[in-house]
Amino acid sequence: MRWIVSLVIVVGLCVPLSAYGSPSRPDAVLSSIVDEALAQTSVHWTQDVFNGRGHRRWISDVNTRSGKQWGYFDFPFAGGKVQEWLVNGVVYIRGNAAGLRDAIPLNKAQAARGAGKWILIPRRDAFYGETSDGLTLASIVGDETASGDLKVVKTTVDGTRLIAVQEQGGWEASLAAPASGAPLPLTFDEVLEPGVTLHGTFSKWNAAVKVVAPARSTPISKVRSG
Fold it and tell me: Rounded to two decimals, what is the model's pTM?
């Protein structure tokens, strides 16, 4: 999963605002949300990044040990499409040449050779870390957690009272929670840099996620070496 930094997350909580304690304790608010999210079994996750050149979109269904993800990209490789599966500690990736070059550092010849095939990436491979990121519940929650110098701000959005944890300076990240509702993240937004914005959603918490390894796959070593 690419384009991950500290994000804006909007969440619903089934506890009153007073349960968080003093507004001067943003770390306690943040910990409450993270702990609640990590206590779940699965989530449907999306992320959209926009800039002046186009749009990048990721769609994922993950549980605590495995996941599947689809990516669609206008930039930097126009028309890129890719799928990534994590099954039993192994990543399987399939896409067109543009999608493979976006997801893993392949050159043109390597990407053309691997296009349309399921490619197997074992845990020991150098590409494993970046391709497995975002394919489990814990990695998504970790990636989508605000950090840095935080403050707490109370606000109201569409008539719903919220308490927000906002990152001060640097990235425009914030974590907000309504006073009642399910204690789980719903949406997140952030300005990654001037002219580049990110929007994401969490939904379908604890829905069944089944991921099965492809019947046939090609080791990444063969794609690299020809």
Answer: 0.83
